[in-house]
């Protein structure tokens, strides 16, 4: 999501790292790169200037310069400043007893109608009854669009075909909500330019007549420097209560998040991360800041994993791992669970330090590969799955390949890879959390070589022998050889 | 109303903002060009969304030419404009029409960029040139997208080929081109669903639509237009890159330039991807589409600056 911003900042911070102590000059160089990264990420110029100013002020203090690892501290300061800039958050929709009205506004094409559907779904899940209101009378077929979305979600949509006055539609909608017993009214207003005085006046009218509990600005996450202008204008006209940032599932650098927050001062409530109607997440500045700094969004991943991984199954696996048991069956289960999380590259991006890997994966069809692996494993007998490298011979390989619809060599590759993986898993299982993270990082460095496969670590050959010992062993071997020859002669 | 006026109109409010920025820069007769000065210039350029690279190059050039000199406003503007104009030089003819048979134009872009509205505008433009247009509503994914284009088609009196929701967009494109050939239409415009450039499967789908169109008319699609939201920041570069990789875009339609956004990212796109801007969208009505003229685009960007009385 924030990949590019992250990549930029990571490289900027790398130049800061590894320099024994920070001087004012090398600090400036590093912070110059931070500034460039932020600007490339579409953070507003003035926000960047402020940000760099604050960071350098803090970083140049005596405390940092005399610290043991100053670069770490600078990273800490940049991190903290990013959090301060984007936070604090308030995810509450402030739903009141009785009818609560929420209004969505924004520029054309920012994603209001889709977001309206996503919010409706969320509210419905929380046990309230939403009413979606098609107050966009401007764009052709906007009303139909909301009806289709409402139909998909099984939510009621209020619209007045042929109506000309969105203010009246909104007022009627609130009345209608009371009649049908809906308790959250979501107003999907038409997209408009913030400099269109007439349409902005219309928004104010709706605001006055309907007095929504909360007014949310929907902002396209790909917006550039202009984000500041439009957010400011909408905030002045309506007093926004929150911002919803959309289209953050692409490679948009998302700097607009920083700008909009800074300019309006209202919390970023949610982020849209996909076209599907469940792709709406709460916004977490801490995670975002960590992610931007290349620390990954491990918390989000854990949260998703907790939702989708079967926690009993996880515990069982953990237990087996600790005992050093890892079979293809376990691998198969993990594949299944990983698939539930979502597309591979999305997951990889969330793991700390794996951001670069996503890029490397590029066109790799991870899902297709996973499906094939599953197919191969499914074609094995339970015994083969428990101990593939010992049992699977040529004829079994051919049988498995035929069953899975793959080439025999692919079966071989899986078995080989599994061998490497199993030994790593066993090792990981025996490690504590801290060592485990270190080990995983080590593995990633290894993975950076595209030709590398997971290798079975070479086992030691035992102890080193001194020359005397070797001589002794040689004598022993020769003696044995002579004895065998003698015995062979005797038996003839 | 010519392109120049329309842009000016759109940029009038923009210019107020731009104006104050730059007027701050040139408070008196001239200013000493120093780090602070260059930093301010960078800020102004960055705010056009042209990107750090292009803005940095301009600032560097200004720095090397004028550092430690007192600078007049006109001098600086000349440097900046010349630089921008030389970056944006392009052919004048926006659309290469097929020598015979229908000219097929495929339109692509991210979600909410303004594809459907831009298609309506293009249709209206071609119709005003006396051409007959067939539309292919191949956005079968987004709710009511087909209806949206149908409403436009009815308003403008163009033929339209529709697809069922969630049906294969390539088949819609195929039928649209077939109809255009059969009915001897002059232009066939194929709408596609909005997609983020990072969604590989959807980008492959786009490639397929492109391929299918090429099966009926070998040179088709004659133009592949990427619709870009003028408010888009540096992500526009990634959009241009990935869409060009997938479907060989031939140009950009810069939509929503009537706001305060300046669309400067096209400068960076031109520089890094080489994609020219063909048309500019400056309003919500079907006639609010004009040809992109680089010199005028650059001039209009700084228009109020030159007419402002030199203080």
Description:
The complex is a heterodimer of chains A (492) and B (311). Chain A has 492 residues and is α/β, with parallel strands linked by helices. Chain A folds into four domains: 3-86, SRP54, nucleotide-binding domain (Four Helix Bundle (Hemerythrin (Met), subunit A)); 100-295, P-loop containing nucleotide triphosphate hydrolases (Rossmann fold, 3-Layer(aba) Sandwich); 303-446, Signal recognition particle, SRP54 subunit, M-domain (434 Repressor (Amino-terminal Domain)), CATH 1.10.260.30; 465-492. Chain A has 24 helices and eight strands. Chain A has helices at residues 3-16, 24-40, 45-59, 62-65, 70-86, 112-125, 142-153, 166-180, 197-210, 227-238, 256-264, 285-292, 298-308, 311-322, 328-341, 344-350, 355-361, 366-378, 382-386, 388-391, 394-404, 408-430, 433-447, 467-491; strands spanning 100-106, 130-135, 156-158, 184-189, 214-220, 242-246, 268-272, 280-282. In chain A, strands 3-2-4-1-5-6-7-8 form an eight-stranded mixed β-sheet, sandwiched between helices. In chain A, α10 (227-238) links the parallel β5 (214-220) and β6 (242-246). Chain A is elongated and about 115 Å long. Chain A starts with a helix and ends with a helix. By secondary structure, chain B is an alpha/beta fold. Chain B contains twelve helices and ten strands. Chain B has helices at 3-25, 35-46, 52-66, 73-88, 115-128, 145-156, 169-182, 200-216, 235-247, 265-272, 294-301, 303-307, and strands at residues 31-32, 70-71, 103-109, 133-138, 159-162, 187-192, 223-229, 251-255, 277-281, 289-291. Chain B has an eight-stranded mixed β-sheet, with helices on both faces. In chain B, strands 1-2 form a two-stranded antiparallel sheet. In chain B, β7 (223-229), α9 and β8 (251-255) form a beta-alpha-beta unit. In chain B, α1 (3-25) packs across α11 (294-301) and α4 (73-88) packs antiparallel against α11. Chain B is elongated and about 65 Å long. Classes of the chains: A alpha/beta (492), B alpha/beta (311). Chains A and B meet through α2, α3, α7 and α10 of A and α2, α6 and α9 of B.
